[in-house]
Write a structure and sequence with these properties.
With 274 residues, the chain is α/β, with parallel strands linked by helices. It has helices at 51-58, 81-90, 108-119, 124-137, 154-165, 184-201, 212-218, 245-252, 257-273; strands at 2-15, 23-36, 40-44, 66-71, 74-75, 91-94, 172-176, 204-209, 221-226, 229-235.
């Protein structure tokens, strides 16, 4: 059974204003997509292809112009009251801008526990323990829970951002270019941790990116979006071969594997020496 089912999804924005002629900008056009529990899909596309708009529609942050998003057999746009709150507990979105996800005047641990305060019955002590557990799962330490956001590096802050998204054990996590500002070694380490979570807990992931190499490391399927339409949808098995020009363009931009391996070797050598 599909966890997420998208049927003929289309979306457009009104353009123009007082000094410009009004019109419509078609961003998505006839999207069909299914995502199973415990599955990870990579959503690829160039800038402006509609990837982020699709993410907002999937999570109910916007209402589609046409079509429907169904999550666990419920139409997302029709959820109200307790059903809407239950949906919020099962889906999470992680953006590229990690600093924007944190209150600069509150500790990292406080921010990670914030969803638990609103969406769980855990005691304050249990919330703190959960925040520390999540930080450690992302390769950080208990001491990071006491620090302010500005006291963490960019990579540490993004790991804490992902930990925050995992706080309420969601069924679906959407990563919207969430790894693009990180170095390759850290990207692969995080994906390995998330893949363990996917296999152990059945969490589904939608990885939105323009980097095919990340998708190949993490996803079972890859979907290519171009000008608001799905132009490729195929399994990630061995060497990928795309038919559409956009897929071939993204494939040509993949970094060679050797630098990634060399980076991992440097990282292991660093840890052995400390």
């Amino acid at each position: 059974m599909s966890l997420l089912h998208v049927q003929q999804l289309s979306h457009r924005y009104r353009t123009g204003g007082l000094l410009r002629k009004r019109g419509w900008l078609q961003v998505l056009d006839g999207i069909d997509l299914q995502l199973q529990a415990g599955e990870s899909i990579g959503l690829l596309g160039c800038s402006g292809s509609g990837k982020s708009t699709l993410a907002r529609l999937l999570l109910g942050l916007e209402t589609p112009s046409q079509g429907q998003v169904t999550f666990a057999r419920q139409a997302v746009s029709q959820l109200r009251g307790e059903q809407a709150r239950a949906f919020q507990r099962t889906v999470q979105l992680v953006f590229q801008d990690a600093p924007g996800a944190f209150n600069p005047q509150r500790s990292i641990g406080w921010s990670i526990a914030e969803p638990l305060r609103h969406l769980s019955d855990l005691s304050e002590a249990a919330q703190r323990l959960r925040a520390i557990e999540l930080l450690e799962q992302m390769g950080l330490h208990a001491e990071h829970a006491e620090r302010l956001p500005q006291q963490l590096s960019g990579g540490q802050l993004q790991r804490a951002n992902i930990a925050r998204a995992l706080a309420i054990s969601p069924k679906l996590v959407v990563l919207d270019e969430a790894l693009s500002n990180l170095d390759r070694v850290l990207q692969l380490q995080l994906l390995q941790r998330l893949d363990t979570l996917r296999r152990d807990n059945g969490t589904a992931f939608l990885l939105i990116s323009h980097d095919l190499s990340l998708v190949r490391h993490f996803c079972q399927r890859v979907v290519v979006l171009d000008a608001g339409r799905i132009v490729e949808d195929r399994a990630v098995e061995g060497e990928l071969s795309f038919e559409h020009p956009v897929g071939r363009q993204l494939q040509a931009a993949v970094l060679p594997e050797r630098p990634a391996r060399r980076g991992a070797q440097v990282s292991r050598a660093f840890h052995r020496s400390h």
